[in-house]
What does this fold into?
Amino acid sequence: MAAKKPRLTPEERIDRAVLAAQTRWSKEDPAANAARGQAGLLARFEREVRAENPDLPETEVIRRAEAARKAHMRRLAFHRERNRRARRAAAENS
It folds into this structure.
């Protein structure tokens, strides 16, 4: 039976994640990976637009998918900032 590993502290988990990311990016091109991710995200929004409106012309599908992608990114930024503000407030109150 293997010995049970001690739990990592939050700081140790962060350090481990940063190390893993830095190791990965030392071996890969981050721009190529980001391009694949963005293409996949846009394809998802195109599928969703087509599912809701199957008779739309291709140019309109692309326009709506791009608008949906921008809305998604804006939503992420909104939530990220709201969470940062909440963490700052919690730290100030501690």
About this structure: The CA atoms of residues 8 and 14 lie 10 Å apart. The two ends are 43 Å apart (CA to CA). Residues 58-93 form the longest helix (36 residues). Helices lie at 10-25, 30-52, 58-93.
